[in-house]
Amino acid sequence: MDTIKHKPEWIKDKKVAEDFEIFEVPKWDDYKDFKTDLGCYVLIKVYRDRHEIGVAICNYEHIILKEFRGRRAQDIYNAIFKYATDNKLKWFNNLDHAAYLGKELKKAEVCLSLGSDYYQE
Questions:
Q1: Does the residue 74 lie in any domain?
Q2: Residue pair 106/76 in contact by the 8 Å Cβ criterion
Q3: What is the end-to-end Cα distance of the chain in Å, rounded?
């Protein structure tokens, strides 16, 4: 990863740390760089008739443990993370897995709003 040490031009009224750096990140390869989160995997479905999004939490024996439904991405992922925390479940151990859930839920929410098809990556 390359780094840049000067203050970005777009930062006008903010201070930057003495050890401030900008990281030029390498391109992520969806297949080569992927690592499975051993806590769970998710299946996301858009329910057009109910105008809802469903997230099924699955274990690696391919059993659906729970399904969370809602209309907005942030409502759903907050409910999932709260349930997991409250019940001391280790569903999301990797931050990139949680980020993936947020990305896919937002994509599903936009598709639901536009009336287009949703395909989970």
A1: yes
A2: no
A3: 26
Q: Would 3 be classed as within a structural domain?
A: no
CB 50 within 8 A of CB 63: no
Please name the residue ranges forming H helices in 1-121: 73-86, 95-114
**Cβ atoms of 26 and 7 closer than 8 Å:** no
Q: What is the DSSP letter of 70?
A: E
Give the pLDDT score at 5: 67
Q: Which domain holds residue 88?
A: 36-114
How many Cα atoms are found within 13 Å in the side-chain-facing hemisphere of 120?
14
Measure the CA–CA gap between 44 and 48, rounded to whole angstroms: 13
List per-block mean pLDDT (blocks of 10 residues) for the chain, which spans 121 residues: 70 82 86 87 96 97 98 97 97 94 97 93 82
Q: Name residues whose C-beta falls within 8 Å of residue 52's C-beta, 6 or more positions apart in sequence.
A: 46, 69, 70, 71, 112
Residue 5 lies in a domain: no
pTM: 0.81
Number of domains present in the structure of the chain: 1
Residue 73 lies in a domain: yes
